[in-house]
Design brief:
A ten-stranded mixed beta sheet has the order 3-2-1-4-5-10-9-8-6-7, with helices on both faces. Helix 2 crosses helix 11 (about 280-305). A hairpin with a 3-residue loop joins strand 8 (about 210-215) and strand 9 (about 220-230). By secondary structure, it is of the alpha+beta class. It starts with a helix and ends with a helix. Helix content is about 45%, strand content about 20%.
Length: about 350
């Protein structure tokens, strides 16, 4: 109980608009998720701290996810920790999809880049298979911008997130972007000629990158085009409204950070695919709790890495990720909290202090 009370005290410092009862359950839920690394409510119920029957824990969890709590509670906590007014942010958009029986679970996410991971800031359960549409993306960006009013943002996204109306919206919102486009696109170069990108790129030598400022795309938008044909693999075609074209390709490579986040939320962390929650609002609330756990692991892992750098193995990569380092330490502290209460108190302040 000392562990739960410690985390509750840290939560009480925040203005999150939740009752004492709900804060208590969130604290128990976060600790259980870190300990068992599964989102299955039955497994969580068996692991919740408290001298009541498992079935009572399970019904309490069901009531929590059936409530009308908004995931914005967790968004505000993440913004408080990761956003500095006036600093440019890299935000990444992508979807993650899996099946529960015959049901499609399809989440559209927008994350803030931190320590090589895109920490989900806004997310929507689409309630359908397949790609998102322009309206759904606009709603996600608008909601995120309410929290990022004093920051300049650069959006990174893959080939799903294209279209004239979408690019016009980003320009209206004054959001910088670096977005990959498909090769079956017609462009107009500054000499007035129309070119088909697929045949255009085929003539490029392998291992080269070319820049085409002020390129007309989608019959009227004037954007900068970067064509990169690697030594192996498919060509990378990027459009952007940024002027630092030499930096754009390196920026786009950071888009992979959201795939890293999905991996941590799924098989390499909390096994999100084990959930039986399918209702959009319930799934979004679960994502909010998981995102808080993800951020906690990253914050602690980052601090531990600063104190004692993670060993680099012969293949050039770290022996363990920053997130996994922090998550393992949190699991150890929660399991042995009676012997490590001061360390756990520090971790709570690390997550929830301004």
């Amino acid at each position: 109980m000392n562990m739960i009370n410690t985390l509750k005290q840290a939560f009480s410092q925040q203005e999150i608009g939740l009752s004492h009862h709900r804060i208590d359950l969130i604290c128990r839920l976060v600790c259980a998720l870190i300990r068992i690394r599964s989102v299955n409510l039955r497994k969580i119920a068996c692991s919740l701290v408290g001298n009541v029957k498992v079935e009572s824990h399970y019904r309490r969890l069901q009531r929590f996810f059936s409530s009308a709590i908004s995931s914005d509670v967790f968004t505000r906590l993440i913004v408080q920790k990761l956003v500095e007014p006036g600093r440019q942010l890299l935000i990444v958009m992508d979807r993650t999809h899996w099946m529960l029986g015959a049901t499609d679970l399809n989440l559209l996410c927008l994350g803030i880049l931190y320590q090589g991971v895109s920490v989900p800031l806004e997310y929507r359960s689409l309630g359908k298979p397949g790609n998102s549409n322009t309206l759904e993306r606009k709603q996600l960006i608008k909601q995120a911008l309410t929290y990022l009013k004093n920051c300049s943002c650069c959006l990174l996204a893959d080939r799903e997130f294209i279209g004239k109306a979408w690019f016009e919206f980003l320009l209206e919102q004054r959001v910088d972007f670096v977005i990959r486009i498909r090769c079956n696109t017609w462009i107009g170069l500054d000499d007035g000629r129309l070119r088909y990108l697929a045949s255009f790129v085929q003539r490029m030598p392998r291992g080269t990158t070319r820049f085409y400022p002020a390129t007309v795309i989608y019959g009227g938008l004037c954007l900068n085009l970067i064509c990169h044909r690697p030594k192996k693999g498919d060509a990378v075609l990027l459009v952007t409204n940024r002027q630092d074209l030499n930096e754009v390709l390196q920026l786009y490579r950071k888009r992979w950070s959201i795939e890293t986040a999905f991996g941590f939320l799924k098989s390499r962390g909390f096994n999100l695919e084990e959930t039986h929650l399918t209702h959009p609002e319930r799934l979004q609330l679960l994502m909010g709790v998981l995102t808080l756990c993800l951020l906690w692991g990253l914050l602690l892992g980052s601090e531990m890495h600063e104190r004692k750098p993670i060993k680099i193995k012969k293949h050039g990569r770290r022996a363990i990720s920053i997130f996994r380092l922090g998550l393992d330490q949190l699991m150890h502290l929660i399991t042995n909290v009676q012997d490590s209460l001061k360390d756990f108190q520090y971790c709570c302040q690390l997550l929830l202090s301004p």
